[in-house]
Specification:
By secondary structure, the chain is an alpha+beta fold. 38% of the residues lie in helices and 20% in strands. The strands form 6 sheets. The chain has a 6-stranded mixed β-sheet, with helices on both faces. The longest helix is centred in the last third of the chain and has 34 residues. The radius of gyration is 25 Å and the shape is globular.
C-alpha cells in the first residue's frame, strides 16, 4: 500500500470515528450504568450481567464468542459465590495477517455517591469535556475504544488488517481469580496462533502527552500479627501492667521505613540493578510535571524535589507502604480497650531482579529481630498472603514500534516510554504463560482518577484512543508483513 493510499484510508477511518462520537459515548454510558463491582459479593450478579453485555457486543461484531465458566470461589464466611465467566473472542483467521489478542476487564472498584463523588458514579456524566463514571478509564472505556476501532473497519467494509482475539474478564479488581489457570489451559489452543498481546489497563504519566508502558513493579503484601490473649482488656484495669499488642505492632511498623522513604530492612536493596547513565538520561527526556502530579494527588510536598528523583523512586527502586491495622478500634468516638490481637498490613513494591522468596525472608528476619529486642511475651506471626512479580518488556519489539507510529499519526508527537510504579499482574501473567510479546498501551490521562472518586476519561482521549487503536491495527500489520518478508529473504539466501 502506497503512503498516499494509506493516508487516505486513515483519514476515512478517523472521519468515521469523529462522526460516531455520540454513538461511542452512548455505548460507554450503557456499560458504566452496570454496577459491576467484583469486590462486593452482593453485586456479583451485576458483574455477570456485564459479562453478558460484553459478549453480546463482540458477537455483534461477528466474533466467535466463548464464555468460559470458571466455577465458584469461597468467601471468608464460607459462602460459595459464582465466578463470572471469562470471554474468549475471535474474529478473523487470515493466515496472511498477524493475530493480535486484546485483554481487558469490565469489572470495577466500589463506588458510592456519598464517598465524595460529584456525580452519580454509575451515570456517565460529561462535564467540560470529561466523561465521569466508575469504569470510564478503568477499564470499560479502553475496552470499548478497542471494540469501536474494530467496528469502524467493519462499518466501512474495509479488509481487516489483523486477526483479532479477545480475553475479557470480570474479576480483575478482585485478583483475577481463575484467569491464570484458564490461560495455562488455553495456551496450546486459543493462544497458539497469537502473535501479539495488547493490554490497555493503565494511564499516561502526563495529563496531555501519550505514553507507552514497558514495565511495572511487583507487589509483596504482608500481614504482621501480634496477639497477647483471647479477649480485649480494660485499659483502666490492665493499662500499664501488660505488653500491649498495639504498642508492639506500632514499633514494628515504625521500624520498616524512615522519614525519607528509605526501607530499613537489611539487604532489601541488594538485588536492585545499578542505575546506568542510559537509564538516567531516559528519565531526563520524559515529560513529567511535578506540580501537576501534586495537584492530581492532592498532596503539598513530595519526598524528592526533582523529576528524575521522583521517577527513580517510582520505577527503579522498591517502596514500602503501610496500609492499615486490623483489630484496632477505628469507629468515631472513644473505646478505652486494649485489643487482644492486631494485624498490621503493609506492602513492598519490588523491582526487577528482586526475588519474592528472598524479600519475604528479609522481612520476617527483620521483624522477628525487632520484636525480640522488645522482650515482649506476646505472639508474633508474619505472613505474605500475596506476591506479584515485576514485569519488563522490550521497547524495541515490533509491538512498541507500531504503537509509537500510531500515536505519532493520531496525536502528532512521539510517546514517552514509561514504567508503572504500580503492579500489573496480568502483563507478566500473559508474558510468562504464552511467551508472546506483550505491550501496555494506555489511552487514559494521569488525572483520570482510576480507583478514586470522580473517575473519568476525557472525550478527547476516548475518541482519539479509538483512532490510535485503529491506526495501530494498520501499523502492526505493515510491520509484521515487513518482518515476514525479511525473514523469507534470509531463508532464501
Amino acid at each position: 500500500m502506497s503512503s498516499s493510499s494509506s493516508s487516505e484510508l486513515e483519514m476515512e477511518i478517523f472521519q468515521y470515528i469523529d462522526g460516531h462520537q455520540s454513538d461511542f459515548i452512548k455505548d460507554l454510558k450503557e456499560w458504566v450504568a452496570v454496577q459491576s463491582d467484583s469486590v462486593q459479593p452482593d453485586l456479583r450478579k451485576e458483574v455477570i450481567r456485564m459479562m453478558v453485555l460484553a459478549a453480546d457486543r463482540l458477537a455483534a461484531l461477528g466474533a466467535t464468542v466463548n464464555s468460559v465458566n470458571l466455577g465458584s470461589h469461597q468467601l471468608p464466611d464460607g459462602q460459595d459465590l459464582p465466578l463470572p465467566p471469562v470471554i474468549l473472542g475471535e474474529l478473523g483467521k487470515d493466515p496472511q495477517n498477524p493475530t493480535v489478542c486484546f485483554y481487558g476487564h469490565v469489572d470495577v472498584q466500589p463506588a458510592k455517591k456519598e464517598d465524595g463523588w460529584k456525580t452519580d458514579p454509575y451515570t456517565l456524566t460529561e462535564i467540560d469535556g470529561n466523561l465521569y463514571g466508575r469504569g470510564a478509564t478503568d477499564n470499560k472505556g479502553p475496552v470499548l475504544a478497542w471494540i469501536n476501532a474494530v467496528e469502524t473497519f467493519r462499518a466501512l467494509e474495509l479488509a481487516m488488517p489483523v486477526n483479532f482475539k479477545f480475553v475479557i474478564e470480570g474479576m480483575e479488581e478482585a485478583g483475577s481469580l481463575g484467569l491464570e489457570k484458564l490461560l495455562k489451559e488455553e495456551n496450546q489452543c486459543f493462544f497458539s496462533d497469537v502473535d501479539y498481546i495488547v493490554i490497555s489497563d493503565n494511564v499516561w504519566l502526563s495529563n496531555k502527552k501519550p505514553a507507552l508502558t514497558y514495565g511495572s513493579r511487583g507487589n509483596a503484601c504482608f500481614f504482621v500479627e501480634v496477639e497477647c490473649g483471647g479477649k480485649d482488656l480494660h485499659s483502666g484495669t490492665f493499662g500499664g501492667i501488660i505488653h500491649e499488642p498495639l504498642t508492639d505492632l506500632i514499633a514494628l511498623l515504625d521500624s520498616l521505613v524512615d522519614p525519607t522513604g528509605h526501607i530499613q530492612i537489611p539487604g532489601i536493596y541488594d538485588s536492585v540493578a545499578a542505575l546506568t547513565e542510559k537509564e538516567r538520561k531516559l528519565y531526563e527526556s520524559i515529560e513529567f510535571d511535578l506540580e501537576e502530579h501534586k495537584k492530581n494527588s492532592g498532596v503539598k510536598k513530595f519526598l524528592y524535589g526533582t523529576k528524575e528523583e521522583i521517577l527513580l523512586h517510582l520505577w527503579h527502586y522498591p517502596s514500602l507502604s503501610i496500609h492499615g491495622i486490623e483489630g484496632a478500634f477505628h469507629e468515631p468516638g472513644i473505646k478505652t480497650v486494649i485489643p487482644a490481637k492486631v494485624i498490621g498490613k503493609f506492602s513492598i513494591r519490588q523491582v526487577p531482579h528482586m526475588d519474592l522468596s528472598v524479600v519475604k525472608q528479609q522481612v520476617v528476619e527483620h521483624l522477628e529481630g525487632v520484636f525480640s529486642r522488645r522482650n515482649s511475651p506476646n505472639k508474633l506471626k508474619v505472613s505474605m498472603p500475596l506476591g506479584a512479580k515485576p514485569w519488563l518488556a522490550d521497547v524495541n519489539d515490533p509491538l512498541y514500534k507500531a504503537a509509537r507510529r500510531a500515536i505519532k499519526k493520531v496525536f502528532g508527537e512521539d510517546p514517552d516510554f514509561i514504567r508503572d510504579g504500580s503492579t500489573v499482574p496480568v502483563a507478566r501473567m500473559f508474558q510468562t504463560i504464552t511467551q508472546k510479546s506483550v505491550i501496555m498501551f494506555p489511552i487514559g490521562a494521569a488525572d483520570d482518577g482510576e480507583h478514586s472518586q470522580n473517575e473519568k476519561i476525557s472525550r478527547h482521549n476516548y475518541i482519539e484512543g479509538t483512532k490510535v487503536f485503529a491506526a495501530f491495527f494498520l501499523e502492526i500489520s505493515k510491520l509484521h508483513q515487513h518482518l515476514h518478508e525479511t525473514s523469507n529473504m534470509k531463508i532464501k539466501n
